[in-house]
Structure formats: structure tokens, C-alpha cells
Fold this sequence. Notes:
Blueprint: H1 17-24, H2 27-42, E1 55-57, E2 64-70, H3 75-90, E3 96-102, H4 121-131, H5 136-148, H6 155-162, H7 166-176, H8 179-194, E4 202-205, E5 208-209, H9 214-222
Helix pairs in contact: 4-7, 4-8
Amino acid sequence: MPGAADASVAPTPQSDPLADFLRSLEPRLQQAMSDSLFIYRNAPRITKPIDKKRIIFGEPTAPLRLIEWTDIRCPHCKHLEDALTEMRRIAPAGSWNEEARHFPLDSECNSQVQRSDGSGVSCLAAKLQICLVGNPKEFNRVRNTMFKEQRALTRDRIWQIATSDAKQRKSLETCIKSPQTAKILREDIDYAIQHKLEGTPLVVINNRKATALPAMIYTMIMVMGRDNDPGFKALPPPNPQP
């Protein structure tokens, strides 16, 4: 019959976007992805109710929940923030949300750290961000600017970034010095320790410790947190873990 499909020709299998993406990575990154997935699959699930006020991107109902702990002066944290900024732009709407938490690498405000440079920059930046919770637009503006200037960041510069309004500064200073802000920071630190933090940044996806590898985070967004997606079979076996 004219125009009829030839039954002897097998249909072309549908493309798997995840597998295609993974195969497009260079071998070194494919191996890093496989190792990251192994770590994630074997991490304990530590469930904590979502705090809607801590969300800086996305909706509370998103299928993938990402929590990150950072220090404002950590170069790796800045690299992660740059990658997440791009993911916010390209990922499908409603596919993920992001909570920002803090692990300042300064013994002045973090008893889990043994050193302090005396500047107070990391502690001030963490507490300032806590005080901006509930205002995602202003939070992101201040945070992004601090990350961009992290190498030359000082306490004075943080305040210049935060506000030029004397009344608002006084309100923020009161918040930063408050016991409630100190309590929230301690809770962030304790929560990170539960996930066996080994350095910043720490990334948790759907209540399990992941890695800060951007490709890992992006693929988990692609599959909405399904770490058993068949597309992952495109990866090589993971390297033995120590």
C-alpha cells in the first residue's frame, strides 16, 4: 500500500536524555559521576522537615530538594554557586529547590573549626545571610556579591554590600547579635555534622549526602532525584571506595 510503513524496518529506539548526557562527558568526568553516584546511593537518609523560609530558589513542592552548606570565603563554594546559578537558568521550572545553610570556617562562631583568621568575615557573612532569610531577592543579591568579591572581602565591605541605609543597618546589626541568629547558625552546623561534613561545600539531595560535582547535581535534577534511573547504566563502574 503506497505510503504504508515497511514492517520489516525496526523502529528507532527513543533517545535517553540522561544516558546521552552522560556519554557526552569526558571519561574522567564520567568516572567522577559514577563515584559520586555510588557515594550518594550509600549515604544514610537523614530526614529533616523542609524550612520554607530557607528556600532561596524554587518551590517547596519541587521533586528535588537541594541543601548546600557554604563558607563565603571558600573558593570551591564560589565555584558551586556559579554552577548552580547556571542550573537555575536552564533547569525546567518546578524541578528543584535550593536551601542555603552555613558552615563558616572560623572558630569564632563554629566550634567544629580549629582556626580563625581574626577577620570575622566568615561569621559575619553567615549571620547576615541568616538575617536576610525570608527575602530571597535581597539574600541572593548580597550573597552573590560577597562570593564575587570573596578574595578581598572585609567586614566593612560586607556592610557596604548589605545596605547603605542607616536604619536598616541598625536592624541587621541587632539581628546579627541576637541569640536567635546564633541558635540558627548552631543548628546549621549541627545539621552538617550529622551528614559527616568533610569540608565545604556540603551538598545534600533529598536528605542524602551527595557531592558538589556540578554534573552530579544537574543529572539528579534531570531525573527528579531518581538515583535508580536506567540512564545511569551508561556510566562506568565506580572505583573502590576507601
